[in-house]
Amino acid sequence: MISATFARSALFLGLISGASAALADQPSLVVRAEFSDLATARRLAAEFGHARLDVGKGVLQVETDAKGMQRLRQAGLKVSVDRGETARLLQGIDLLAKLGDKSISGFSCYRTVEETFDSVATLAAQHPTLLQVSDIGETWRESTSGNGYPIKLIKLSNSAVAGPKPKLMLVTSIHAREYTPAELGTRFIERLLAGYGQDADATWLIDHHEIHAVLQANPDGRKNAELGQMWRKNVNTTQCSGSGAGVDLNRNFPFEWGMHNGSSPSACAETYRGPTPGSEPETQAIVDHVRAEFADQRGDSPTDAAPDDASGLFLDIHSYSELVLWPWGYTDTVAPNGPALATLGRRFAWFNGYTPEQSVGLYPTDGTTDDFAYGELGLASYTFELGTAFFEACGSFEQNTLEPNLAALLYAAKISRAPYQLPAGPDVLNVAAGQDLLLADQAVSVSASIDDSRFNQQLTSHSGPVASVHTITGADLYLGTAPWQDGAVALPMSAGDGSFDSAQEQVQLTLADGLPAGKHIAYVQGRDASGAVGPVSATFIEVIDPSEAVTLQGSVRQIGSGTPLQATIRANQFETSSSTDGSFQRVLPAGEYELQVRATGHEALLLSGQQFNAGSLISRTFELYRLCPLFEDAADSAVATEFSVQAPWTLRTGMGNGGGEAWLPTTGSSYQNSLNVSLTSASIDFSGYESPLLSFDSRCDTEAGYDFGQVEISLSGGAWSEVYRCDGDPQWRRIELPLPQLAGQADARLRFRFSSDTSVTRQGWALDNIRLETAGPACRAQQGTTPPNEVFINGFE
């Protein structure tokens, strides 16, 4: 039977080569519009719900229909359908239309509205002192019929620690069909809570700062989107009905509303701004909360700046386009705090690699969240546009989008105390004590890296100048009391090379007198030649009385052969490594532990409920199963490949990681335009196997944002599903992709697909040392008997 997704994609391919009348039946197309006049392109971009403007290429990419294509043509643009992106968009719509009982079908990494609410309710029940959930308003549907959702506000802060505290306000998924923002925000909250008490930065942030988050800012609209509709707005039907109903909430905020042709007065348009400023209850809930929680720190004149020491930060997270944006969005004029906004924007963009620029550089907008928060209250305000796709596959989200943006959000939380000042100072990295556990009165050395250079210095027409990078002039350690608290004592740290003379320095300080038993926090803050200090980073120093110590020792070996293994042994938050002979030793505080033992190429071992009593010496031998390879390709022409190879993919001598051979989709110095070619495996049987792990060496030298390397899988002959995507990364990297969806499948296929657009080429996507390994009963059966009383982790790393 032909799958619905395949049938729809095939239908699409027929439609785009047919008459324009047939195209009118397609509700969603991704089109490229080539322009010669930038002003026209920017004006048109503001009319579409999703627009991507590439000034350098002279291309406007939008999601629209045949009517929208005609609008672009009438304006003088050369319009064509982007076949690859449209096919992927339609596949995403089909997957979303198959909503299951849990999560979004085909996009299991993204929680539904209900799952998001359930997750935060569970967290609040588990951490009642740290997390509170409240209703701050309701949706249009709820306010008119009682059949909608509340607008839920999450407040993360330790209520047992007195304020006042600086605040970060996070709004995600205000546009319904943007799935990644809400998940990113939810995982950020989860990550901080999971680290509380174990990770020093998570702990001091929750103790001394507040994070306010509206994770589902448009839940009624999101439910429509979860059912497979390309829904953007809320669901207000008073002005327009059907698929065009609703108000664009991010054009409805009461600042410069409807004044600059940055939104639409047409009720059925994607960027309809609503009948009046702040007309929608979803908008009003956010406005009321922001006004109540943040002081007004800016005058009423457009030229009034917020004071340099203003506190508080506002972030609105969207998708897609890989951008970091700041006010203004309605004018080319630089905001009064423009240089400081640009400095912080370049800091954010260092983490995620996105393009940093003033919001109007994308296209003019008015009535937006960030212009409201900055314009009315003087808050440093930003919009992140996550990722590169309308429906970002879970593999791409997990591998490419999640971690860099979690790091950016962590930085946002750190600098929210003084967002116009702290980003001008250096970052503090890798704060660590020489030992993570000490006996009372032992001396301890604390080290850190101080770095002033971590800016994304990309230049655009609206990015402003590059940020200034200064020489590090010093760093201080604060033990137990943070630098902003009364009684804080700065302990100067010394440069590792003897002098402070560069923008990157290693620093250290030895506390020779030792510390009493207990858990101590050490804050480190750096400063540069401009006089600016940056945000703090911290580490815990845990000290125990010798009478409370436990010694865990032993060895790690491969089961069956007894070969010693270099492994990581983790006991709760404490970690050690075995040496080349497999032996290890670790001092721990007495208590109950979960042990995890991990070694490259082996199945991870988990032992829970291990009780270690004070004064004991515990000896253990851990035996690990090796992983079983089910598919391998070393990119070696001397060995027959198991791939079905689609030209121009070929093995290229001297292009591999280390100088050998590698797969590339080109026979020359650069790939061709308009490629869509694959390396495809035969069917692979995973029956009896668990935790598949795909690893490969990748050098993804492509035009960033337009040409992509993609890893995809297919089950039982069904549609291909993307699990990884790369672009614009010309360095060799070892990629590891857990693929739990393949576990137990009797018929699965794997492919590496390369696609390019119609202009600008690079060397291409090089692949080497491809290996697909698994664990599980079928793998263990090949190696011997299961060690007694041991459990192997389903989902190794």
Task: Detail the topology: elements first, then pairings.
Elements: H1 4-16, H2 20-23, E1 29-34, H3 38-45, E2 51-54, E3 59-64, H4 66-74, E4 78-81, H5 83-96, H6 113-126, E5 131-138, H7 140-145, E6 150-156, E7 167-172, H8 179-195, H9 200-208, E8 210-214, H10 219-226, H11 281-293, E9 313-319, E10 323-326, H12 338-352, E11 355-358, H13 369-377, E12 380-386, H14 394-415, E13 427-433, E14 437-439, E15 444-451, E16 472-479, E17 491-492, E18 494-495, E19 504-511, E20 518-528, E21 537-544, E22 549-558, E23 568-571, E24 574-577, E25 583-589, E26 591-598, E27 605-612, E28 617-624, E29 628-633, E30 643-645, E31 650-652, E32 662-664, E33 676-681, E34 690-701, E35 708-715, E36 721-726, E37 729-738, E38 748-755, E39 764-775, H15 777-781, E40 791-792
Parallel strand pairs: 7-8, 7-9, 9-12, 10-11, 14-21, 22-28
Antiparallel strand pairs: 1-3, 1-4, 2-3, 5-6, 6-8, 10-12, 13-15, 15-19, 16-17, 16-20, 18-19, 20-21, 22-25, 23-24, 23-26, 26-27, 27-40, 29-39, 30-33, 31-32, 33-38, 34-37, 34-39, 35-36, 35-38
Helix pairs in contact: 1-5, 6-8, 8-9, 8-14, 12-14
Catalytic activity: Releases a C-terminal residue, which may be hydrophobic or positively charged
Signal peptide: 1-24
InterPro entries: CARBOXYPEPT_ZN_2 (IPR057247), Peptidase_M14 (IPR000834)
Instruction: Report low-confidence residues grouped into runs of 5 or more.
Output: 1-25
**Strand arrangement in the largest pleated sheet:** 5-6-8-7-9-12-10-11
Per DSSP, the total helix count is 15
Instruction: Calculate the terminal CA-CA distance, rounded to whole Å.
Output: 36 Å
Task: Return the structural class.
Answer: alpha+beta
Q: What integer is the average pLDDT?
A: 92
In which range does the helix fraction lie?
A: 10-25%
Shape: globular
